[in-house]
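Moderator note: this is an archived Q&A kept for reference. The question asked for a predicted structure of one protein chain; the sequence and the answer are reproduced below.
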Amino acid sequence: MNLFSLKDAEAFVATGKKEFRHSRETLLTPGARDCLTEAGIKVVFDASAAPAPAASPSAPAATKAGGGSPGEFERLFNSPEARSLKEQICDIGRRLWMREYTDGNGGNISCRLGNYFICTPTGVSKGFLKPEMLCLVDMAGNQLAGTWKRTSEINTHMAIYSVVPEAKAVVHAHPVHATAYAIAGLEPPPCLIPEIEVFVGRVPVAPYRTPGSAEMAEVISPLAPKHQSIMMGNHGLICWGTSVEDAYFKMEITDAYCRTLVVASHLPSNRTSIPGDKLQELLDLKKKLGLPDSREGLKPEQLCGCDPWEMISDRPKACATTAQPAGPDTSKLTNAELEGLVQAVTNQILETLQKQKS
């Protein structure tokens, strides 16, 4: 049996070939298969194909990728610490499923185990996970232990771990209300509820990319250091935390907020919101808790410089977290007042032109 690793796959991609043929004598690691697929290379099983050459035939893929032997990885994967993390992942999987944050086999969970990571397998409902189904991977996404194939979206998780050392766990799912905002391409407005301001903050919308692809990792990575909850455009929600439960909490808070906004948008409203100076107090508290926030350094008048209710109406308006220039608010003018304003501007322009002629 010849193992074909991620490093071997990268070397094959460099040849420019568009088809990779292998027989039963060649075992592709999950990372290698993903690398070939993402490069647009067709992977074909051919019983008569010669064994694919490996970059280092004498070394198993796990040793090259992870820096240890298969036996060492198995011991780590079955250590007391690993068993505890597996139980936590299974527990959070059930909570995701019970809250209807996942459907079918959707969603995935991972957490750090030293320099490695435990993650959920592909093709399994998160509500029925068992510890023996989980997988051990390295930072490159290579599977080192576990008999079930690891999640196909592990690269997106690694995009977060690689830029946020504080991230100990990542949870991705499809909670209905947050996902509704993600498919609408709308960032939930600020300045309405204290909890999300302190424990989550802004929830940006990353542009759509194919799930699990390198491109998906590329759009998530720049957002992760300052955002613990990120909407994946036309896809779902991904959150990181200091534990599996903490990452799940970020998701629960985000979806509850989105759900509240949807309900509030159907009610008659006095359009109340949190003033900028009061939001600053919440952000000061957040800083003391050691939580990241992309709005650090903004002035109070910049934090809530627009009406959040405009962003949850049936015709939402974009609102940047920057100070807006002073000027007349034409959105509240009557038709007669607006016509008068237009006429005044027109008269001023004509008067200026007349002076230039004379």
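Archived answer notes: Confidence is low (pLDDT under 50) at residues 54-66, 320-333.
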